[in-house]
Write a structure and sequence with these properties.
10 helices; 2 domains; 6-stranded mixed beta sheet; 12 strands; Rossmann fold; alpha/beta
Length: about 260
């Protein structure tokens, strides 16, 4: 399935949800949402706390089951596929609260991800010393994310910004087609945010990986996004390029906290 993109190019749909719904009692966390991700884009998913962003990503990445609706990847129904099935299909995710093996080195964290992707689950760390292909790939991923010099540092010994990059590197090492990034700049300084996003954006674009970023820092969102989807009260409030979203009065009022025009 394809739709028109600005400039006459065709945008090919990678993933979409159809009337996706998840309620928690009276709370409509995701309320009949039609959400589309096109191949190759860097998309930001924004909204105030409780807007439904994380729930939507949890549904797409199989950390929750929907009440109703569909999730389609390449037009194939994956609504009730498991986490492992979605990983094999090419969907990976990093987390707002960094999800690393703190006592393992940065290299071992990435190597473990590569082994997991390849289904090599026996004596992982011992194998890593002898599997040259895994070693080369893990070292290449670390270099791409600027972590080569920290190869032998335990994850718990990294600075917060480096831990964020390592968490994304671990997800990237799964070789996803679609990568969800949950608050990749949370908890880091304003100076470090730009460096982190420069690195992440460069790596995923060079690797032709489609990325969806949940992010609260709107300066980051407007700078790095090809497209922005804003959610409010479980529904999609606006969907468009950064300049269009910046001028949207509903986004200004409900996401940016600015007074509505008029």
């Amino acid at each position: 399935m394809a739709r028109a993109r600005a400039g006459g190019r065709r945008a090919v749909t990678l993933l979409k949800t159809v009337k996706l719904r998840k309620y928690f009692g009276d709370t409509r966390a995701v309320d009949d949402v039609d959400f589309v991700v096109t191949k190759g884009e860097f998309l930001s998913l924004v909204g105030s706390n409780g807007a439904g962003k994380t729930t939507l990503v949890n549904l797409i990445s199989a950390f929750m089951r929907p009440d109703s609706g569909q999730i389609l990847l390449d037009d194939k129904d994956i609504t009730y596929a498991s986490v492992d099935e979605r990983l094999r299909a090419g969907i990976a995710r990093s987390f707002q609260l960094v999800n690393l093996f703190d006592d393992l080195t940065t290299f071992d964290n990435v190597a473990l991800s590569v082994f997991s992707r390849e289904g090599k689950t026996l004596n992982l760390m011992r194998l890593a010393d002898h599997d040259q292909d895994v070693r080369r790939e893990a070292e290449d991923v670390l270099a791409q994310f600027g972590l080569a010099a920290k190869r032998n540092v335990p994850a718990k010994g990294l600075a917060q910004g480096e831990r964020k990059l390592l968490d994304v590197a671990v997800a990237y090492a799964l070789k996803p087609r679609l990568l969800f990034l949950d608050e990749p700049t949370s908890g880091v300084s304003t100076r470090d945010k730009g460096q982190i996003m420069d690195r992440i954006s460069a790596v995923v674009r060079a690797g032709n990986v489609t990325a969806v970023v949940i992010e609260h820092d709107m300066d980051v969102v407007f700078k790095y996004s090809d497209r922005i989807v804003a959610m409010h009260q479980g529904a999609i409030l606006a969907d468009g390029p950064p300049d269009e979203i910046r001028r949207n009065p509903a986004v200004a009022a409900n996401v940016l906290g600015l007074p509505a025009a008029g």
